[in-house]
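INTERNAL AUDIT FORM
Audit reference: QA-55
Scope: verify that the stored structure record matches its stored sequence.
Auditor: D.O.
Record contents follow.
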Amino acid sequence: MHDVFHIIESTCIPIAIDNCNTDLIIPARYLATTTRDAHFFGDAFMHDLRFNAEGRVAHDFVMNRVPYSEPPRKGINEIIVAGKNWGSGSSREHAAWAIAGYGVRVVISSSVADIHRNNLLNCFVLPVIVSPAFQMELFASISADPLTRVRVDLPNQVVTNLTNMHFESFPINAYKKYCLMNGLDDIDFLLESKDKIEAYEKH
């Protein structure tokens, strides 16, 4: 069982990089590890943009600037507002592990690569697809006020910019919505349905 997912209200990390591929999200050298330690992958999230070739903090990168440098926690930086075509490139699950391990609960973009979107959902990170206009409005609000808060209401499938109360609906697969709202991964779901499966097999 995982934490149930209903409503997230948080400040955001704006990563306005279009076509941010999975190699940027987590460099390939981290793929050979056999660990599933969340902190390991969280530390690797956007590593080669957060740090320069000498391993020093890249102060010009958004994630290293206050308040976006604050580690995600309840109500703080749990949401990424991302550029279009987020998670393109290779299908590596590790990219979703890195985002989840860093502590992010929601990625908002006008488009998310299909395989990466499913990998995020499997890691209990909600990909929220919005219109390009709403995406740009969020970036503008955050630029004007870095403490801008956004509410993501999964039960009603609505995302709201709390600065101006503009909102949009977003799509999600009904099965994945049920799993998120009940803290179930695919195995948990099957176990929850064990009695129904056994009854079906008897007929």
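Auditor finding: record pair retrieved intact. The beta strands are 7-15, 79-82, 106-109, 126-129, 149-153, 158-161, 166-169.
Action required: none
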